[in-house]
Amino acid sequence: MASPAQPGTIFSPALAARFDRLVTLYPVRRSALVPMLLYAQDEIGYVSDAVVAEVAARIGITELDVRNVVSYYSLLKTRPAGKYHVQVCTNISCMLRGGNEILDHCKKKLGIPNKGVTPDGVFSLEEVECIGACSWAPAAQVNYAFHENLTPESMDQVLSDYRAKAPNGEGK
Amino acid sequence: MATLTTHPDCVPLVSYRFGKGATNIDKYLELDGYKSARKAMELGPDAIIAEMKTSNLRGRGGAGFPTGMKWSFVPKQSAKPKYVLVNGDESEPGTCKDRLIFEHDPHAVIEGVIIAALAIQAKMGFIYLRGEYRYLIEIMEKAVADAYARGFLGKKIFGSDFDLDVVVQTGAGAYEVGEESALMESLEGKRGIPRIRPPFPAVVGLYGGPTIINNAETIATVPHIFRIGAAEYAKLGTERNGGTRLFCLSGHLVRPGVYELPMGYNLKKMIYEVGGGIPNGKKLKAVVPGGSSTPVLTADEIDIGMDFDQVGKAGSMLGSGGVVVLDETVCMVEFALRTMKFYQHESCGWCIPCREGTDWLKKSLTRLHAGGGVDKDIDNIRYLAENMLGRTFCPLGDAAAMPTIAFVKKFRKEFEDHLEGRGCPKHRAAEPEPALV
Asked: Which of A84, B2, B187, B205 has the largest CB neighbor count within 10 A?
């Protein structure tokens, strides 16, 4: 089952090479599973059926084993999010400094509910638990980038900066 | 980017290299880097552990277990390989200190792993960071690669006969994985479900081998103990609570931030002098002293020293160092509900008292906050929470129950005010959501 090189890989050569190495770092290949899924999602956009199949084959476990793990971790998504996934923290430290207001503002500005995706596929929105920015609250992450000490006005700026980065007509 | 905030009372020990470009290995070496690892190598396992015991360093993840003692539990002889595991899954609401360590001083984490590995004679270490900390994973991976290139990791480190491999691992979003046994499951490529103890990780841990698992701040403190001397380190703190710690001040403060202060520093002073007091002329209502799982303190309970023993005596816990400050405008039912929403979301579902308990507590608190509560609800909330205590594999159940009990006990009047027909005007009604996952 455990075959190191996949001739028909869905990943870029760089990521495939990274995965070839990753499985060799640990006493057991399966330890590479969680990082592999996250890095695959970063490249493909979400944990698609094809990702599940290839990751299962690379590690030498069943697709069911992989899906069991996927469903546990909140960063792993089985459907496409927006190109820019806006994650607003509303946990206690952020809540005390206006995290809910930032979330409401994003809903209004983007015209989508929590966990929604804009029709053009550029943005998605998610209310998240503590992201480790408590002393710089309220805070949000767009993909992996932190944006801290937010106000509705600075959040607008953050969103319009990402909007400007997305090529015209970009969508899923 | 996260930066340290300073105050004249701060003692820069763990933060000694913050803001000095120490992610660069040459800069790190210039600032006494990797000297402690060489010193530890000369001392040998028994003397390393003796030094750790002298330092009175206690685990910075939350439980405050003496680190030297934890290390001493690892058997000298073992048929299975031993491991050192760094817990950088920082997820306790109110806590944002490990971020600074990874961002400003990644080599201190590596050096701490080397010393721990020398102490128990482990040949492999893992540094586990939460998936959200992607930029820090990149910093850590670069630091590990640089350490390999210099011969500080890999075969025959520092020219000795000792081999040590270190791998940086990413999580993918799960508070539960910050619990030691769930973290080991995650590192084995599984769902982060806790293991029952005993056996403890020191005997049966990662891949079934004896394992030291320490919080990132704990590990990053280790080289500093050998840098200044264990006795000197111990003297910075209070009795049985050695050294300093990174306190994360958040919430209603004029100057929130992460500050390094001596263990035992007075909480009142921390809020009013270090944190600059409560903004907008408001009064202090309550303080969550050590992350969301620690029982709340009222405004007149804060004249205490911030070490594990003194906060414990005051009926709470020093926890993870996340000090969350609430002014008089905060609705305690809303705060209790938000706290419970978190634990309900994060419960892994393995132990029934936690899975069902957090869900029912969230439902009860939601109803109470919306104004639909009945008299019995308040006692039921407390009864339910009390029956979760100690009945789960891991402390997540306790972490959800303890603050809830304290909210009801100390702010019962506010819960009563929410009863029938007197819902909180601040209640946010749930709205239908599409499923993204």
From this structure: B187
Other CB atoms within a 10 A radius of the CB of residue A73 amount to 22
Task: At A127, give phi and psi (nearest 5°).
Answer: -80, 125
> CA B252 to CA B257: how far, in whole Å?
11
Indicate the residue of A25, A28, A81 with minimum beta-carbon distance to B436.
A81
Cβ <8 Å between A137 and B256: yes
DSSP structural state of residue B263: T
Query: Which run of H or E residues covers position A63?
Result: helix A63-70
End-to-end alpha carbon distance in chain A: 34
- This prediction's pTM: 0.95
Residue B210 neighbours by CB distance under 10 Å = 25
Q: Where are the domains of chain A?
A: 13-72, 84-169
Please tell me the distance from the alpha carbon of residue A30 to that of residue A57, in angstroms, as a whole number: 11
Tell me if the bond preceding B432 is cis, omega within 30° of 0: no
Chain A positions touching B1 (Cβ under 8 A) are: 146
Q: Quick one: closest CA in A to B339, which residue? A: A92
CATH annotation of A84-169: 3.40.30.10
Q: Complex ipTM, two decimals? A: 0.95
Q: What would the pLDDT profile of B231-270 be if each residue is shown by its tens digit? A: 999 999 999 999 999 999 999 999 999 999 999 999 999 9
Chain B residues touching A131 at Cβ < 8 A = 132
B95 interface with A at CB cutoff 8 Å = yes
Q: What is the CATH number of the domain that holds B267?
A: 3.10.20.600
Contact A92 B191 (CB under 8 A): no
Give A62-121 pLDDT, tens digit per residue.
999 999 999 999 999 999 999 999 999 999 999 999 999 999 999 999 999 999 999 999
Cβ–Cβ below 8 Å for A75 and B191 = no
Residues B70 and B197 in one domain: yes
